[in-house]
Amino acid sequence: MRHVIGPTGEPLTLADLPPANTKRWVIRRKAEVVAAVRGGLITLEDACRRYSLSVEEFLSWQKAIERNGLPGLRVTRVQQYREETLSG
Predict the structure, then answer these.
(1) Which of 10, 20, 22, 68 has the greatest CB tally within 10 Å of its CB?
(2) pLDDT of residue 11
(3) Residue 52 — left, alpha, or beta (φ > 0 → left; ψ -120 to 50 → alpha)?
(4) Number of other residues whose CB lies within 10 A of the CB of residue 58
(5) Orientation of helix 55-68 relative to helix 77-87, angle to 10°
(6) What are φ and ψ of residue 49, in 5° steps?
């Protein structure tokens, strides 16, 4: 079975990913989806389709992890929008 290393350092397989009908996106679930895409377990397109995400939303999760690690995923969309508006 193919796997990548997930955000907790444990192997992550397709079966470990959040369910397609996930509505509550906690930090761990977001990080698992980002790790799966980065590791080639699923494509960006598949992740967006599976979870009804926009590419921009997924990329914002990825950017948050790159900038601040998992705690960066705590920032809400409204906060991100305000920060981008103020800095832009």
Answers:
(1) 22
(2) 95
(3) left
(4) 19
(5) 80
(6) -65, -50
Q: What is the pTM of this model?
A: 0.82
The pLDDT of residue 2: 87
Check residue 11 and report its DSSP letter.
E
- Among all chains, which residue has been given the structure tokens 């955000």? 7
Give which of 7, 4, 12, 10 is closest to 26, Cα–Cα: 7
Q: Which residues contact 1 (CB under 8 A, 6 or more apart)?
A: 13, 15
**Alpha-carbon gap, residue 67 to 10, rounded angstroms:** 22
Contacts 24+ apart (CB under 8 A), 46-55: 50/20, 51/18, 51/20, 51/22
In this predicted model, what pLDDT tens digit does every residue of 13-65 receive, in sequence order? 999 999 999 988 999 999 999 999 999 999 999 999 999 999 999 999 999 99
